[in-house]
Amino acid sequence: MPRGGEAAFDAIAASGRDAMGQLRRMLGLLKETQGSLDPQPSRGSR
Which residue of 10, 33, 34, 46 has the fewest C-beta atoms within 10 A of its own C-beta? Predict the structure, then answer.
């Protein structure tokens, strides 16, 4: 492997792990708020 190749792959792997962690957190937030996304009555619909 060329010089720096291992470091580059390590950086790619770390970046991928970080992205997956962010995605999991975002999906968790979406699951928590799923019930509150139902349409709400508007002020003029009385």
Answer: 46
pTM of full prediction above 0.70? no
Full pLDDT tens readout for the chain, 46 residues? 677 899 999 999 999 999 999 999 999 988 887 766 667 778 775 5
Distance CA 20, CA 26 (A): 10
Cα 28 to Cα 6, 14, 32, distances in angstroms: 33, 21, 6
